[in-house]
Amino acid sequence: MSMLKEKPYITITPEPRPVNVYFNDNVLATTKEALILQEGSYPPVVYIPKEHVAMEFLLPTDKHTTCPHKGKASYWTISAGGSAAENAVWGYDTPKEGVMAIAGHVAFYPDKVRIEIG
């Protein structure tokens, strides 16, 4: 009997529909090049290319986490329209092999922003 832990199944697929991300009434991102990352039984995560994100609303923080499957994540706080959401955005600048497609992309916590697809 094998005692090895199974690696979670990760898929990354292009989202063909337009994706818009809003913080309050501020447009943070709009793209037709989003990626959907599905990891095991976790909810799918929308990753958006940084060049399609209004990065001027994102302030880098000192927070970093490490995922054994994706690598080291950096975080940003959203600051727009007089409101802020701390560490509400994350991304992997140098993700691990197998998930390299998310390099140069960021993801938003869906309880901090409104993400519209389609």
Can you walk me through this structure?
The chain is an all-beta fold. It has one domain (10-117): Beta Complex (Metal Binding Protein, Guanine Nucleotide Exchange Factor, Chain A). 0% of the residues lie in helices and 53% in strands. The chain has no helices and ten strands. The strands form two sheets. The chain has a seven-stranded antiparallel β-sheet with strand order 1-4-5-9-8-7-6, with no helix packed on it. The protein has a three-stranded antiparallel β-sheet with strand order 3-2-10, with no helix packed on it. Pfam families: NTP_transf_9. InterPro entries: DUF427, DUF427_sf. Residues 19-111 form the DUF427 domain.
Instruction: Give the overall form.
Output: globular
Assign the CATH class.
Mainly Beta
Tally of DSSP β-strands: 10
User: Which regions have little confidence, pLDDT < 50, spanning 5+ residues?
Assistant: none
Helix content: under 10%
Structural domain tally:
1
Q: How many helices does DSSP assign?
A: 0
CATH topology: Metal Binding Protein, Guanine Nucleotide Exchange Factor, Chain A
Strand content: over 45%
Biggest sheet architecture: 7 strands, antiparallel
Structural class: mainly beta
What string gives the helices and strands in order? EEEEEEEEEE
Radius of gyration: 15 Å
Ends apart, CA distance between termini: 46 Å
Query: What value does the average pLDDT take?
Result: 93
Strand order of the largest sheet: 1-4-5-9-8-7-6
The CATH architecture can be named as Beta Complex
CATH superfamily: Domain of unknown function (DUF427)
